[in-house]
Amino acid sequence: MEISRFTALTWSHTVSPSLHLPQPLFAREARRLRVWCVTDQSSKGNQMIISVTGATGFIGRRLVQKLQAENHSVHVLTRSKSKAELIFPVKDFPGVKIAEEPEWKDCIQGSTGVVNLAGLPISTRWSSEIKKEIKQSRIRVTSKVVELIKSAPVDIRPKVLVSATAVGYYGTSETQVFDEQSPSGKDYLAEVCREWESTALKVNGDVRVALIRIGVVLGKDGGALAKMIPLFMMFAGGPIGSGNQWFSWIHLDDIVNLIYEALSSPSYKGVINGTAPNPVRFSELCEQLGHVLGRPSWLPVPGFALKAVLGEGASVVLEGQRVVPTQAKKLGFSFKYSYVKDALKEIIS
Ligand SMILES: NC(=O)c1ccc[n+]([C@@H]2O[C@H](COP(=O)([O-])OP(=O)(O)OC[C@H]3O[C@@H](n4cnc5c(N)ncnc54)[C@H](OP(=O)(O)O)[C@@H]3O)[C@@H](O)[C@H]2O)c1
């Protein structure tokens, strides 16, 4: 079975309502988060203006909430204003500017920083057209952002670009440990990540670039977990495949905080792995998930079931890589969730 390549890019976020899983974050949740964000981190004092591509996605939505809670200005760069306006209604997100592509230039010029998260989700069936679009969507948006930053007059040019990439950069292995110095893998997702990263690095030398190689993001409202939980409920959970494959995860709060730090701290530059300090084998993830859901972890979830909900993106979970956050630790980044057990408890509570 193959699930691990999906660790590298992203999951789409459909959740079965019948399972009473958390619903999308809107007003009530946004208010709760505002409190969380404000109490969670001290403001650095300097107000930033941040343009975000992919802001309407799983990570982006939470990042926008965090930036707003810390009193920064946010420009949502989207393909669809009407979709973004539903996600960020004015009454809950006053001052958030929403812009479609022709207006991106005006948003980026004058921004302090840009966060680049856009890309077609990988958890789909991978026809050759889809594979092309998984790569091209990322290269296209990243190139556009880089061109707009480069062409901005110096006095209104953003100072920092924080661009997403993924742990799929390293390829997969059951035995190796990967840090930021490790070479890239040979598979399709490794190739996507290499090209995505090299496109972001084409921005001018005076712009600080942080490339965040993101692991599987665990959060309430989407991502891998939202898709896996219904399967656990149906099959009583259990390791998928041998269970020996590695699962390099990170809690949504931590990836958002890491991106936030990368925006505001000049020492954050180059490649930074966005993974928790303690990746787990898949069998352990399943065991912990079983505990938290109150389901014994003994009946393996068949690979075909996972592929049915995740498409070839399931391969990200069925293979895997053990990625450690050496740079984030060197930079002194403080993880709220170092252990998957604590992350799952918080998410499923
Ligand atoms: N979530 C994870 O576990 C994970 C792991 C590793 C890496 N990553 C990477 O981190 C980034 C953000 O992840 P996420 O989970 O927040 O992603 P997401 O929920 O899938 O959102 C990505 C956003 O990208 C834009 N987008 C979608 N299809 C596109 C296309 N064909 N062309 C251009 N833009 C498109 C959409 O924004 P608009 O519709 O507003 O334009 C969408 O909201 C992604 O690039 C992902 O690959 C995520």
From TrEMBL:
It comes from Vicia faba (Broad bean). Pfam families: DUF1731, Epimerase. CDD domains: SDR_a8. Residues 50-267 form the NAD-dependent epimerase/dehydratase domain. Residues 301-347 form the DUF1731 domain. This is Epimerase family protein SDR39U1 homolog, chloroplastic. The lineage of its organism: Eukaryota, Viridiplantae, Streptophyta, Embryophyta, Tracheophyta. InterPro entries: DUF1731 (IPR013549), Epimerase_deHydtase (IPR001509), NAD(P)-bd_dom_sf (IPR036291), SDR39U1 (IPR010099).
